[in-house]
Design brief:
extended, Transposase_11, mainly alpha, single chain
């Protein structure tokens, strides 16, 4: 293994009835939704696990670069218009 991972399983208590918000579960669900927006990953078309892993990595890199570029563009706009930058 490349890194040390700690797996934390979040469960509902046995006494709770109805809907209960569980901590941090939404992060995983949101990430799966973002990856599902990539057409290639929406359905399992790949024949090998290595190919599926590569496409998942490509989709993750694409999301990261877009988010980074958007953040940098916003920072340039904010920084150039502020009084502190002048």
């Amino acid at each position: 293994a490349m890194g040390k991972w700690t797996l934390e399983i979040i469960r509902r208590s046995d006494t709770t009835k109805g809907f209960q918000i569980l901590p941090r579960r939404w992060v995983v669900e949101r990430t799966f939704a973002w990856l599902g927006r990539c057409r290639r990953l929406a359905k399992d078309w790949e024949k090998s696990i290595a190919s599926s892993t590569a496409w998942t990595l490509i989709a993750s890199i694409r999301m990261l670069t877009r988010r980074t570029a958007r953040h940098c563009q916003a920072w340039k706009t904010f920084g150039s218009g502020s009084k502190a930058a002048k």
